[in-house]
């Protein structure tokens, strides 16, 4: 990962070309199948929409609670509300051009509530590992419900191997390799194997919740059998996972939607699959911006802190060169 220079002109050109290619393919398929959209089957069901919005709010709190738990494993104690503020503002910073802003936000606001930079960086790396691992498990275990028994056995063996890689010693080695470019002190894992497995399990529950929330949102405008909810959860986690680990496109734009459409078209018409992929992407962005906007509106001093952070980033070129090549959690 460190050998890939995301700031190079060549990388940016390749990234833009990949995004445009995938977007063009999806757009072409959508235009070709536009007339096949069953407009008579589309409707607005407020019950599912409200349920999805409630889920979205609750799920917005869960990552902060999990981050708080990870910090507690690193012997960093903090209150939930200040940590929530850090999470919201650093998420908003993602929408400022440049990959550094989300990390700068965590460090900038994290220090303001008494967190050490070392703990912030290590917890962010751990968050990435747990987030990706849990997405992998949810993809496998929910797909097991629909695959032939031979594939279930293979996936079960793969899952056991993945669980083995979550041993504290393995995680510690991975952290030191990933963080050697931008964390000076050696990283030591002091928490136990059961604590790691518990954390991954909690993140898996979060992924299932994200799947349920997205499924409810789709049900608010298109009827899908409830029996497909586990399949949808698996597809959703898999598409997010592939989008996150994609190093070519920013935030997995295009890649995530392409994977989702390719798999989910076996459940709904391809035009509906594309519509769901596009709408759920915008829905997640709007939900995040709405919560962030409420913080900026009612949180005293939020705007001054936000502008202060952007000025501070002007002198953070060293940090940028170290962080910009790392995957977004």
Rg, nearest Å: 20 Å
Query: Which geometry do the CA atoms define?
Result: globular
Share of helix, binned = over 70%
The beta-strand count equals: 0
- Provide the β-strand percentage band: under 5%
Helical region count? Answer: 13
Explain this structure to me?
With 329 residues, the protein is mainly α. Helix content is 71%, strand content 0%. Helix 1 crosses helix 11 (270-298) and helix 5 (117-143) runs antiparallel to helix 6 (149-164).
Short synopsis of the structure:
By secondary structure, the chain is mostly helical.
Sequence-ordered SSE layout with sheet pairings:
Elements: H1 9-32, H2 46-73, H3 80-92, H4 100-112, H5 117-143, H6 149-164, H7 168-179, H8 193-219, H9 229-245, H10 255-264, H11 270-298, H12 302-312, H13 317-323
Helix pairs in contact: 1-11, 2-3, 2-5, 2-8, 2-11, 3-4, 3-11, 5-6, 5-7, 5-8, 5-9, 8-9, 9-10, 10-11
Keywords:
single chain, 329 residues, mainly alpha, 13 helices, 0% strand, globular
